[in-house]
Amino acid sequence: MKRRLWLAAALAAPLPKARAGAQVEEPLADSVRSALSGAIAQAAPPKPTFERIEDRLSYLRWLGEMSERLKRRKKEAQTRIEFLEAVWYESRRAGLETSLVLGLIQVESGFRKYAISSVGARGYMQVMPFWSRVIGDGQVSRLFHMQTNLRFGCVILRHYLDREKGDLFMALGRYNGSRGKAEYPNLVFGARRQWLMPGER
What is the dihedral sign for C-alpha 11, 1, 75, 186? Predict the structure, then answer.
């Protein structure tokens, strides 16, 4: 009950406006709609598994480094780790670079779970409500659930990247609803640099 009251208060409180633009609803072929629906429906494992110890150590180094960088935006350690684990999993699941997704989240919502843009985009990755109807179960409120929002955002960006034949600049513009304009992709590319590991620059 306490959690429900806190959530209701959090949703009712005025939030700073998100900087994001908005994806534009476009007609989808039935096969694309089915593929996207399938992609957001599959459950995620709670923790990643690694066959090689080197890969596990690399992941743990990444988690520690990113947690330190995220500390001023997310004070509580457990919340930070859960968020980073979900971003890592969802970005890789969608075939996206994790630092790019973190950069996009920084630009879109400033890492605010309950961010709402002036056009109604929601959550960390500023997903437009129409996506919950087009490829989800129609429950717009679920876009504030961390893993749901990250999954939708990563699946949508992957869809746009495929549509733009791998052109990340154009895909980011499409994600923001400003296709062909440089401002938004350049902001994301700039933010991405802050989330690269040493030696990746």
Answer: negative
